[in-house]
Structure formats: C-alpha cells, structure tokens
Amino acid sequence: MTGRGRFLAACAGRAVDATPVWFMRQSGGALPAYLALREHHSVLEIARSPDLSAEVAMTAATTLGTDAAVMFADIMLAAEAMGVELELTADGPVIGRPIRHADDVAALRTADAEADLGFVLDAIGRVRAGLGEGAAVIGVAGGPFTVAAYLVDGRPSRDQLAARRLMHGAPGLWASLLDRITETTVDYVRAQVGAGADAVQLFDSWAGALGPADYERFVAPWSRRILATIREAGGVAIHFAAAGAAILEQLGEGASVVGVDSGQSIGVARRRLGALPVQGNLDPARVAAGWPATSAGIDDVLAANAGRVGHIFNTGHAVPRDTAPSVLRDVVDAVHERSARLPAMALHGGTR
Amino acid sequence: MTGRGRFLAACAGRAVDATPVWFMRQSGGALPAYLALREHHSVLEIARSPDLSAEVAMTAATTLGTDAAVMFADIMLAAEAMGVELELTADGPVIGRPIRHADDVAALRTADAEADLGFVLDAIGRVRAGLGEGAAVIGVAGGPFTVAAYLVDGRPSRDQLAARRLMHGAPGLWASLLDRITETTVDYVRAQVGAGADAVQLFDSWAGALGPADYERFVAPWSRRILATIREAGGVAIHFAAAGAAILEQLGEGASVVGVDSGQSIGVARRRLGALPVQGNLDPARVAAGWPATSAGIDDVLAANAGRVGHIFNTGHAVPRDTAPSVLRDVVDAVHERSARLPAMALHGGTR
Q1: What is the pLDDT of residue A159?
Q2: DSSP strand E in chain B: where?
Q3: Predicted confidence band at B345 (pLDDT cuts at 50, 70, 90)?
Q4: Per DSSP, which regions of B160-297 are E strands?
Q5: Does A212 contact B265 at a Cβ distance shorter than 8 Å?
Q6: Shortest Cα distance from B149 to chain A (angstroms)?
Q7: Which residues of B touch A (CB under 8 A)?
Q8: Which residues in chain A are contacts of B247 at CB distance < 8 A?
Q9: DSSP H or E segment with residue B244
Q10: Which of A140, A275, A306, B36 is deepest in the core (most CB within 10 A)?
C-alpha cells in the first residue's frame, strides 16, 4: 500500500499492510531544513508563505517517512483572520486584547477562508501535488474551546480559568463567541478539504479541562458542526484533546477518528469507542528518553491496540521541539515493521 | 452532628445529617486575616511558623464554616527538609538545582519529621486543640510523582517532560528518587497523624499526566506505601490528582477517599469506585462566575452523587486565590442545607 492509501484505510477502519504513522508537530521541530529556514523567518512568516510552509510539511513527511504530512499552520491562524491581534511565543499564543465583553465578540469578523487564509489553502494544494500517493495531507484547525480559551485568557494558562469563568457566568456571551469561532472554522475546514486535505485534525487541546456535562453543553454542539463539515466535504475528521479520558466518547461523536492522549490506554479507549478508529498514543517523553524506552513504548501501544483495524500510530501529545529527526524516522520504521508482523494484521483486520 | 463528626463519618462511608464541606486551598487566599499577615510575612514564613500557620488554618475553617480545616503547608516543605533549595513563586515551586543525576539523588537527605518539620506538627496540634469537634484537621503531603516532577523539571511545567523523560530513560534512578521522597513522606504523614491530623490528603496533582500502565509501574507502589502509612497511623488517607479520570481506580487503591477533579462526573466516578468514598468536585470556575453558576454547580454535584453516603463536598481543583470568602461561606451553607433535604440522606444513606 502507499502511505496515503494506508492512512486512509486505517481512518476508514479497513485492513492495512502496516500501521500508518505520523506525529503531532512533526512539521518543523529539529528538522535541519526547518532550522535553516528559521534563521531567516519567524514561525508566522513561514506559516503565511504557501511556498515555505508547504516545503516544511513535505520535507518532514519525506525525511521521517511518515504516511501523512501535517500542515505547518498554527491553530490560531483562523482567529488572527478574525481580526485578533496575535503573537506566537515559545509558550504559545498571546492575544493583544483578550475577549471579555459582548463588544469584544461583536468586534470579531467572520473570516473568509479563500480571502483571508488562502495561503494555507495554497500550501495544502502544493503538498497534495508534491506528495502524491506517498503521504496523505492533514490540515489543522483549532477546536472551539481551545481557541475561545486563548482568546479569553489571553495567554497560555494551566486551567483556562478566565474562559471557564466567562462560560459559566455569561453563557449567552460564551455561545455567541463560539458561534463566531465556529462560523469561521467551518468555512476554513471546508476550504482545506476542497484544497486537497485528506483529513483535518480538530485540536481541542484543552477541552479535557471540562467535565462531561460542561463539555456537552458548552463545546460539543459547536465541535460537532465542524466535524460534520469536514466529513460532508469528503475529509477525514480527526478529533483530539490533550487530556480527554473523561470525555472520550463525546470526542468520538461525529468524528471519523479520535486522537488518544498518552494519559490513556489505547486498549481501554478502543473498548470505550467500539469500532471507531483511534490515533495515538506513544508518550513523547519516551521518544525523548532513549531508544530502549522508545522501542518498549512502541511495543506497548501496538500490544494495547492488539491488531485491531482502525489504528493510526502517533504520539499522544506533540513531540518535543528538540526531538532528533533520526529518532522519529526510527519510530516510523519500527511501527511499520512490527505492525506488519502482527497476526491480526496478517488476517487483514480479523479481530475487528 | 459536629463538623468533625460529619467529616469523619462521610470518610468512613457512614450516614451523615448533611454533606461535609471543605475547599482545597481554603487556608489563605483572600481571607482578610491572611491578607493582613501577608503584608508582613512571606508564604514560607507563615508556613514555618506554628503560630501563624495554625491561625490561618483555624481562621479559614471558622470564617467559612467548613467541616474541616486544612493545614497551611506547601506540599514541597518535605522536599525542602530533604535539603532541596526551594522558592515559592506565584506559579509554583522553583528548585535551585534540578535533579538529573544519581549524585543529585544521593545528595538528598531523609528528613526527620520531628526535627525538620516539627513546625507543621506543632501547628497541627494547635489546630486540633483549637477547633475541637468543630472541624476535622487535614494535613497535606505531596504525592511522589508531583514532588519528583518539581524536583526534576525544576519549575512548574505543563507536561513534566524532563521528569517523565528521566522516568523512562533511567528507571533505576527514578525508583531511587521515589524511594528517597517516599522515606521522608512516610515519616512525615505518620507524624502528622500522630500530632492530631484526622486525615492527610496526598496531593499527586500531576499524576494524571501518566497513562495507567506508567502510573502503575512508576508511581503507584510508592503512593500506596504512603497511603497505607496514613491509615495504619489511624488517619483518613485522601488521594487526589488534578486530571485523574484515566487512573481513578488506581488512585482509589489503598486510599480511604478519592478526590475527584472537575474534569470528571461524580456519578461516573462513584460507579467506577464502588463503595469507596469520594471528595469533590465543584468547578472552581463556577465559584468565580457569580452565584447563579455556583448554585447550579452545587446542585449538579449533589445530584450526581445522588444521595449516596461517603461524599465529602469540595471543589474539583484548588479555589482561585482571589475568591471572596463570603462566596465560599455561601457554598458551605448551601451544601449543608440542600444535602440535609436530600431523600437518601434522610434515610441515613439508604442508597448505599
């Protein structure tokens, strides 16, 4: 199978010849070509250049040998297109004027994907054409809770307290903020699929901070609109939260694939999610801890999945920025080789 | 029932006349008496003074009307007693020389609770004597993963990557680090119960970052030694992690009570834990969001517990430092009044 074929088959719960692999934050990091670019360009400059960002995504996929390329596009680009003043720091996005009042929400504009985020769409087209069947192309978008949390808290926060306070204290304002974010995001993900993205991963990184009832009331309706749009456009909708154990089934509702973080067991996640394909969940700390720990971690993830169809191998969180590309390449090779030897894989998904 | 009687009955899974209440980080915060003290003393100065720290804990319990007083004692005090150079910043503890090598672990001393942490024990005795049956006394200790994470990362970190890297890359070194932390902690919690603490809460705040298998291998053996020591000494062992959904049953093993964070449903937690008493889990964001949101949150938590015996009401995470004491007092009153009217409570725990 080709890389793209393998990825798409796994996302559809079909049998594969080997488990497909990609890594969150694989585009960029310590890749020599990326480091060279960074000497002359900021992260946002690269992200805004179709040429440069396409090159970063393609180089990562071909250098690492992954079955998918993920676009080099910060999840806050769409918010910036909505008129938010944004700075990307090493810790994460910082907002010029945090959103606290109805006026702030009213001041947000609905972005037009073609006009305002065309550079991402253009880059997707280039990566799609450049990689052909070698690797699938994954677009990215920020989940409604995470984008709203950054906009309200104004900076990366351990507990997103300002956002959650607004959510509970002014639920109408919260709903209108999520409406605005979602209008832009829906257009953006549809356009990404139209431009050639095989899948879009909705990163609702901090949504795990909410309990199941709050998630259902304050986030899920909006997320599900976005996931449905990705699928209606013909794309694979991957849904990820960074500490999602308590809301796993809810993340799965409407998604094609659920990203499982490293704080969970893939085995438990699969029992909870039934036939729904999953992505994950090698602990990035293991990738950074030397090959014996990495290799054992790969075995653990494959064993926990137990040869079931519908598994895309990934880290359970973004890989650390200083991860040696050679280690990631070794992970890809090991996953491909070992999964190809798994009995159930030989039976083409017989344990489904 | 008295406050202390109500708290101890709930921790033992026995019927109560009303659900007992306390709040994580209730001692300190925005209490006027505490703010007055802080004008002249640092947090560590207050914590190291039996007189001042006892006053803070007692004033909080009596002002707020809680059924338990929690000691004003940072979870890193025991690490400091092991010879670690420590600074408490607004973001959390910062370590002078992070631990990375065997030499660093060897340089840690095993603290003697009486000699090195006598000020905490002295304070516990004063609070115990001062509050009598009015409120139970809860001591605190840092969980082995969380203490180790601070020692290795050196500062508060979103993902504790340095610690988890060391855990996977040098498991022998990790084990010896946890051995040292645990030796000191075991002595410390035993002494706290001996000094009059009715319960000790083991705060393994960041342990939820680990998956179930890693938690079982790299943390649980040490935590369970500490929990067992608290119980053998005659105390109630409360076990808390801040995002513990994926390891909930494991947190419960060996504990008297499991603290449930706001990212979970108490109803789901109770189904998973069987008869084990639970503590939690009002979202602190609701406490900060105005009374309608707070009041609805109280109802939700009580409804999710559905009148089962063995419930201690608390927030699901520490209350924000700027929370108005009057709001917390209102929460205490509302929980007491509403829970006393619950049908199952009237039946003295009939739904057990």
Answers
A1: 87
A2: 68-70, 86-89, 92-95, 136-142, 199-203, 236-240, 257-259, 278-282, 311-315
A3: low
A4: 199-203, 236-240, 257-259, 278-282
A5: yes
A6: 13
A7: 156, 158-159, 161, 164-170, 208-214, 243, 245-247, 262-265, 268, 281, 283-286, 288-290, 293, 297, 300, 316-317, 320
A8: 263
A9: none
A10: A140
Per-residue pLDDT reduced to its tens digit, A78-121:
999 999 999 988 888 999 999 999 999 999 999 999 999 999 99
Tokens of B186: 């075991």
Residue B22: closest CA among B61, B75, B62, B71: B61
Antiparallel, parallel or unpaired: β B92-95 and B86-89 = antiparallel
Chain B residues touching A212 at Cβ < 8 A: 264-265, 268
- Give the single-character DSSP code of B84: -
Contact B159 A286 (CB under 8 A): no
Q: What is the pTM of this model?
A: 0.94
Q: What is the 3-state secondary structure (H, E, C) of A185-252?
A: HHHHHHHHHHHCCCEEEEECCCHHHCCHHHHHHHCHHHHHHHHHHHHHCCCEEEEECCCCHHHHHHHH
Q: What percent of chain A has pLDDT over 70?
A: 97
Parallel/antiparallel/unpaired status of strands B257-259 and B278-282? parallel
Looking at the partner chain, which of B169, B284, B285 has a beta carbon nearest the beta carbon of A290?
Answer: B169
Which whole-number Å values give the CA distances from B94 to B84, B97, B104, B207, B221, in the listed order?
Answer: 10, 9, 16, 19, 26
Summarize pLDDT for A135-149 with one digit per residue, the tens. 999 999 999 999 999
Residues B320, A293: C-beta atoms closer than 8 Å: no
B41–chain A nearest CA distance, Å = 27
Separation between Cα atoms, residue B290 and residue A49, nearest integer Å: 45
Over residues B21-39, mean pLDDT = 96
> Could you tell me the CA-to-CA distances from A253 to A223, A273, A310, B304 in Å, in that order?
10, 9, 16, 23
Average pLDDT, chain A: 95
List, in order of start, the domains of chain A with CATH numbers. Answer: 3-349 (3.20.20.210)
- Which residues are within 8 A (CB) of B193 and not within 5 positions of it... i.e. 6 or more apart? B139, B200, B230, B233, B234, B235
Question: b or e along B70-105 (b: 16 or more beta carbons within 10 Å of the residue's beta carbon)?
Answer: bbbbbbbbbbbbbebebebeeebbbbeebbbeeebb
Tokens of B23: 């709040």
Q: From CA A315, how far away is CA B232, in angstroms rounded?
A: 41
The distance of B262 to chain A (nearest Cα, Å) reads 6
Q: Which of A113, A102, A144, A332 is nearest to A251 (CA)?
A: A144
Do residues A7 and A136 touch, judged by C-beta distance below 8 A?
Answer: yes
Residues of A whose CB is below 8 A from B246:
245, 263-265, 268
If DSSP codes are grouped into helix, strand and coil, which group holds residue B203?
strand
Q: What is the pLDDT of residue A342?
A: 83
Answer yes or no: are the C-beta atoms of A188 and A116 closer than 8 Å: no
**pLDDT band for position A347 (cuts 50, 70, 90):** very low
